[in-house]
């Protein structure tokens, strides 16, 4: 119930007590105090009935995104760029007016800009997470199903949300050309040949190669700790100790002789990526990314005869579903493996008879 008191100054104090909630404000004119009180009473009734407060007037989607960013971990570059894109493309929409038409127009704009279904689905998932945070953390009455429904609508629009598994691996000749290019490029300050060789020897991600430290290397066990390793279910504290195989140790050992602390490869991952892309463009190597080295490295580990658990320890994958995307077994490799098995069996039978 609202009460109004005229103060000695001539101003009016409005007070609202309802449902255990108390608010007050002072106004010059009584009609302004009455209008404010009516608005507050409606808001309080909404909170009492639904458990959530109505979205404040003038509060935009950009305001919600910014509040989310202040309280929540924005993660890596992908999440940060998605945050910036959503704010840029939809931030001006008043939050209380956000509806399915807004999301339809957003999808139209993203498709026109060349974004694929997988990317758009990820955008909508991120938006959904922000809306859920606003509802359950800030207790605002928000339509949390909007993003989920828009994502489901992608299928009806014949927009595929299934990622195509990439099977590109660098060939031996492509690697030789890259190594030769870097060795002859006197302006190249990052030891790209060494970094790429290490990536191929360990199956580490680009960020992991550039983040491991000398302090985390165990020289007696020939292992290294990869800190906060990528995991879809565990964002932080996912430290993993992995073995450094002989080919990797041959690269690490000389570095340990001259340095006792710091990152093994003290370079920005983005700079490494840029140098790799620039070299491929210069050599006209088509559609090759640094991450493709991880695909080749993983396949090579299987080709050497390591088991799935052993390979998973090196790559950091938790399930076969995750790992199989990085294994590119060719038909001729199956034939060769069967031939090798046949030769071993024939040799064993011969030894048993003799």
Q: Number of helical runs?
A: 15
The level 1 CATH classification of the largest domain is: Mainly Alpha
The CATH level-2 architecture of the largest domain is identified as: Orthogonal Bundle
The largest pleated sheet is described as: 3 strands, antiparallel
| Total beta-strand segments | 6
User: Helix proportion of residues, in percent?
Assistant: 40-55%
The CATH superfamily title of the largest domain:
Intergrase catalytic core
Overall domain count? 3
First-to-last CA distance: 103 Å
CATH fold field value of the largest domain? hpI Integrase, Chain A
Which tags fit this structure?
mainly alpha, three-stranded antiparallel sheet, 354 residues, Single alpha-helices involved in coiled-coils or other helix-helix interfaces
Plain-language structure description:
- The chain is built from 15 helices and 6 strands.
- With 354 residues, it is mainly alpha-helical.
- It has 3 domains: 2-50, Up-down Bundle (Single alpha-helices involved in coiled-coils or other helix-helix interfaces); 61-157, Orthogonal Bundle (DNA polymerase, domain 1); 172-318, Orthogonal Bundle (hpI Integrase, Chain A), CATH 1.10.443.10.
- The strands form 2 sheets. It has a 3-stranded antiparallel sheet, covered by helices on one side. A 3-stranded antiparallel sheet has the order 4-5-6, with no helix packed on it.
- The mean pLDDT is 88.
Condensed summary:
The strands form two sheets. The protein has a three-stranded antiparallel beta sheet with strand order 1-2-3, with helices on one face. The protein has helices spanning 30-50, 61-71, 77-90, 100-112, 117-136, 145-156, 172-184, 192-202, 206-209, 246-258, 269-282, 292-303, 308-315, 320-324, 331-353, and strands spanning 2-6, 12-18, 21-27, 217-218, 223-226, 240-243.
């Amino acid at each position: 119930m609202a009460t109004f008191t005229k103060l000695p100054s001539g101003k009016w104090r409005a007070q609202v007590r309802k449902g255990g909630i108390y608010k007050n404000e002072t106004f010059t004119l009584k009609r302004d105090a009455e209008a404010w009180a009516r608005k507050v009473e409606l808001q309080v009734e909404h909170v009492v009935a639904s458990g959530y407060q109505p979205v404040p007037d003038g509060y935009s989607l950009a305001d919600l995104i910014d509040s989310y960013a202040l309280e929540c971990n924005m993660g890596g570059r992908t999440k940060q760029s998605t945050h910036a894109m959503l704010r840029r493309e939809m931030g001006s929409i008043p939050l209380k007016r956000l509806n399915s038409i807004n999301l339809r127009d957003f999808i139209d704009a993203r498709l026109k800009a060349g974004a694929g279904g997988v990317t758009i689905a990820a955008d909508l998932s991120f938006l959904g997470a922000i809306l859920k945070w606003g509802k359950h953390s800030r207790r605002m009455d928000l339509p949390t199903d909007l993003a989920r429904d828009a994502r489901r609508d992608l299928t009806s629009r014949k927009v595929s949300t299934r990622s195509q598994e990439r099977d590109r691996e660098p060939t031996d000749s492509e690697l030789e050309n890259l190594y030769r290019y870097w060795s002859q490029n006197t302006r190249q300050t990052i030891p790209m040949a060494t970094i790429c060789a290490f990536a191929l020897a360990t199956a580490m991600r680009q960020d992991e190669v550039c983040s491991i430290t000398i302090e985390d290397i165990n020289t007696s066990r020939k292992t290294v700790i990869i800190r906060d390793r990528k995991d879809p279910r565990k964002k932080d504290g996912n430290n993993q100790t992995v073995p450094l195989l002989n080919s990797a140790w041959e690269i690490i050992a000389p570095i340990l002789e001259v340095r006792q602390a710091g990152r093994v490869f003290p370079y920005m991952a983005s700079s490494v990526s840029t140098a790799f892309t620039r070299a491929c463009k210069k050599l006209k190597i088509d559609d090759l990314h640094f991450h493709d080295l991880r695909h080749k490295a993983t396949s090579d580990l299987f080709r050497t005869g390591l088991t799935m658990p052993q390979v998973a320890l090196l790559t950091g994958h938790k399930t076969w579903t995750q790992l199989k995307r990085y294994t590119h077994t060719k038909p001729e490799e199956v034939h060769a493996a069967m031939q090798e098995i046949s030769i071993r069996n024939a040799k064993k039978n011969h030894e048993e008879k003799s």
